[in-house]
Write a structure and sequence with these properties.
single chain; mainly alpha
Length: about 120
């Protein structure tokens, strides 16, 4: 294909001023509608009965209070708190094991009727 063949393609791909204005206007209009929330179409709130027939359902309003902490969903909060709880439980179990060993080993030696702690080697 000769190099001159791309000239026709270049003219076809280059939009005119009016077409460019329309495309930019439509894009900005769509962006503004998304920001405002005015382009939200009225959705049909339909629920199916036991027979499988559609019935109009009432609209549910959004919750007054969204229970999220630091913007995280509830399941992540539960997972973090569960992991923290397991860590604390493991720490208590390890410390209790050390304490029981120290209490069971009797290092007390009686010299002339007085109790003296003797460190075992």
């Amino acid at each position: 294909m000769p190099l001159g063949g791309f000239a026709g393609l270049k003219d076809k791909l280059r939009p005119g001023k009016e077409e460019l204005k329309n495309n930019v206007g439509d894009s900005l209009g769509n962006l503004q509608k998304k920001i405002d929330g005015s382009n939200v179409a009225e959705e049909d709130n339909l629920e199916l009965t036991e027979d499988g027939r559609p019935v109009a359902a009432p609209r549910h309003s959004p919750p007054l209070l969204d229970c999220s902490c630091f913007g995280l969903p509830k399941r992540y909060i539960i997972a973090i708190l569960s992991g923290l709880g397991f860590c604390i439980s493991f720490g208590i179990r390890c410390n209790l094991g050390v304490a029981i060993v120290e209490m069971v080993n009797n290092n007390t030696v009686y010299i002339n009727g007085t109790a003296v702690m003797q460190v075992t080697p």
